[in-house]
Design brief:
This protein is mostly helical. The chain has one domain. It contains three helices and no strands. The protein has helices at about 10-30, 40-55, 65-80. Helix 1 packs across helix 3 and helix 2 packs antiparallel against helix 3 (about 65-80). The radius of gyration is 15 Å and the shape is globular. The N and C termini lie far apart (about 45 Å).
């Protein structure tokens, strides 16, 4: 079964649209800078976003935080699955111990 054969559920389509809106909003400022970040850098940011959003999430609030987490998951997934980059293949942009 190829990608063209998949029928996307409406809830997935709507969530993907929200993800795209967030990515588009940051396109001019950040572009695809995440593609130059190491897997470990992205994972660290994901952890920070999850921690932040778990503590601040209330029903009906902070919906953007969930979309941010999803976008980071997509970035990590894309780096591993679609590009096939290994953990250390891209050097980190920031100094990490």
């Amino acid at each position: 079964m190829g990608c063209d054969d998949i029928v996307t559920r409406p809830e997935i389509h709507r969530f993907a649209e929200a993800m795209q809106v967030t990515l588009d909003k940051h396109q001019e400022e950040k572009g695809d800078s995440w593609k130059k970040m190491s897997f470990l850098e992205l994972k660290k940011i994901l952890h920070q976003q999850i921690t932040k959003n778990i503590h601040t999430a209330k029903q009906g609030e902070n919906i953007k935080g969930f979309v941010d987490v999803a976008n980071l998951c997509m970035m990590l997934w894309y780096r591993q699955v679609c590009v096939g980059l290994e953990f250390e293949e891209v050097k980190p942009n920031s100094s990490q111990p």
